[in-house]
Predict the structure.
Amino acid sequence: MTTAELRELNMRIEAETGFLTDLREGMRHRIIGQERLTELLLTGLLSGGHILLEGVPGLAKTLAVKTLSALIDGQFSRIQFTPDLLPADLVGTIVYSQHEEAFRTKKGPVFANFILADEINRAPAKVQSALLEAMEEHQVTIGDETFALPNPFLVLATQNPIDQEGTYALPEAQVDRFMLKAIVDYPAKNDEVAIIRGHLSGEIKEAIRPVVSLSDILHARQVVADIYLDESIAYYIADLVNATRRPAEYGLDELQRYITFGASPRASINMALAARTTAFLHRRGYVVPEDVHEVAYEVMRHRIGLTYEAEADEVSSDTIIASIVNKVKVP
């Protein structure tokens, strides 16, 4: 890409990112002290990638997803996952209409632009399998018919890491479908005081109106697709992901005993997509290594299998990613 083309792209991005201010302000109105969470939600939204939010109860995971959906003029469905949930409760089923004297398809709540899968790890394998097709293929099969899902279609799932009773571990195949896994942490003390005051005054509970249309989101995705990603950055992403599979090749022999399997090629694709979106959020027409670093943990932390030895030594996937990011040569 020439300098003139890059300058033109930067000007185009500057003109197309005005709605980001409205979205960020709308999120701050309700979500206090979770700026990183907001940026990750925007990254998934503009990349077309599903997001898994993990954190203890009460950290505004559900509220953040509902707030983002309320700011966008689209269809929103909240599905509370429970152990007795059936696939038909999610995707729909075929019912017989006595009035019409015929069978007809009754579509489920998954037919929406934004799906909040609350406590996703509480549903059994059959329900997870039904959601898997929707997440990957953006379509649902009911009986003999296949129905396309709305565009855009985004699954934003939450799970509680500390409550194990009545939960099911998500299959690796489904976890891999999530572009990002965000760890939601406690707010700072000053932010918590602001949260208290906001709830007491009623400001946080005020209704939120849409500030962005679905066409704005789809148009922004087209702009993101034009952001320049140099070949050296692509090789850098491939090195980061490959280091999770063969750490010894990168001088990280000590990590070999902690990893059962590394990140899939889907991690490389998603890291490139997320890095381009990060550049867009920074109003830049090209990707730099810092954009990759900004999303590396969220893209790879749920795609690395840990051995029992890693658990015994209290080595997490984030620890492994930190070692890889510090070791692999930056272009």
